[in-house]
Design goal:
alpha/beta; Rossmann fold; 14 helices; globular; seven-stranded parallel sheet; 380 residues; single chain
């Protein structure tokens, strides 16, 4: 009997959660499941990179119109879609689909699963969404956390521990056949790097919680002032103008490249000499897994789920959060110690292959789905 799963998200681009969603849907299809990807749309958002990427993977897609934060018409559309396509598992990724799924009963044969990727609660509005999300998740048949700290938050918020699992994110390998080497060299030239230049890469939203201001401070400090580098910031966000001004004021404006949103992430990773995270909080960043797969050294604060994946000096460099001198020193160490850096990227790539691949993630989700569909299954 062929089973069907609907992955559901509200999306404004192709970021970490979207990548995981597509990877999972693609894996399920290899196990004879019918994979559907559903996205919330509204008149103000005309284009969707997620839908384009899903279609490139040959996955079925559906758009659920939703002009408001909560739209009862949308909940009706979802129920009708599940009924028409006999969706066995509807799998939600994020606040908005969680809220909508909690408002209407689905067909009796459909189970509700949610993955909690992370909560960003640096504003009153987002703290309210987090509080509400933790409560509506109680109506789900099962909730997945991408890290042990998120699991503990969910259980602490009142969810029964038997209905919460930890499944780490997983992705397909970056450049498994080595086809991107020449393209990466061309990209370095396009970005203004010489053969001797070091490319420091950041990928993510240009938002307060990502602490790119800290990265700029680090690059302007003593340990890196004499290094020939370019910082390549990939992503869009409200802070772009502010960060451009900060780079200029620090005297490194000519060494920072703002590329905007790009889809050629594998090529960028293959071109990079180091990948840097600098957030005060993270879940399990998918782009970090991509860097590990691509054999790019990782420098990151020891926050969120990252210390559960990266051991300092073994798989990458971990530093205290909110510490510009430590960040600068770790980046310089990566450049100055090629032998130890080579050992770290090798160990990180093996860690990815063993624990963080699409296969490793997909096996766990598939087991969860099948357990929920067992005839004797009962909600805890």
């Amino acid at each position: 009997m062929t089973r069907a799963a609907l992955q559901l998200i509200s999306s404004s681009g192709f970021y970490g959660a979207e990548r995981v969603l597509v990877e999972l849907a693609a894996y399920l299809r290899t196990r004879d499941w019918t994979s559907h990807i559903g996205i919330f749309t509204d008149p103000a958002r005309a284009g969707h990179d997620l839908l384009e990427m899903a279609r490139e993977h040959g996955l079925s897609t559906v758009e659920f119109s939703s002009a408001r934060k909560i739209d009862l018409g949308t909940t009706r559309q979802i129920r009708e879609y599940c009924s028409k396509h006999h969706i066995d598992i509807v799998h939600s990724h994020g606040y908005k689909p969680n809220l909508h799924l909690a408002l209407r009963r689905l067909p009796d044969f459909t189970r509700k699963v949610a993955t909690c990727h992370n909560w960003l609660s640096h504003t009153l509005k987002l703290r309210l969404y987090e509080w509400l999300d933790k409560r509506v998740l109680r109506s789900f048949d099962h909730v997945v956390a991408v890290s042990p700290p998120l699991h503990d938050q969910l259980v602490g918020s009142g969810l029964h521990s038997g209905r919460v699992s930890v499944i780490r994110n997983g992705i397909a390998p970056v450049d498994a056949d080595g086809a991107l080497e020449n393209a990466a060299e061309q990209l370095r030239r396009e970005l203004g790097l010489t053969v001797e230049s070091r490319m420091i890469l950041f990928i993510g939203r240009l938002a307060v919680e990502k602490r790119i201001d800290l990265l700029l401070q680090a690059l302007a400090s003593g340990p890196l002032v004499d290094v020939d580098y370019k910082l390549v910031l990939v992503g869009e966000g409200d802070l772009r103008a502010e960060l451009e001004n900060q780079a200029s004021e620090l005297g490194i404006g000519d060494r920072v490249v703002f590329t905007g949103y790009r889809r050629d992430i594998p090529k960028l990773l293959k071109a990079a000499d180091v990948f840097v995270l600098c957030s005060d909080d993270e879940g399990l960043p998918v782009v970090m897994l991509e860097a590990m797969s691509a054999r790019v050294p990782v420098v990151s604060p020891a926050v969120g789920a990252i210390p559960g994946v990266i051991e300092d000096g073994m798989h990458g460099r971990l530093i205290p959060p909110d510490n510009a001198p430590a960040l600068a020193g770790a980046i310089r160490d990566v450049f100055e110690n090629p032998v130890s850096t080579g050992r770290m990227v090798g160990a990180a790539c093996r860690k990815y292959e063993e624990d963080l691949s699409r296969e490793a993630m997909g096996i766990q989700y598939l087991e969860l789905y099948m357990n929920l569909l067992e005839p004797g299954w009962l909600s805890v």
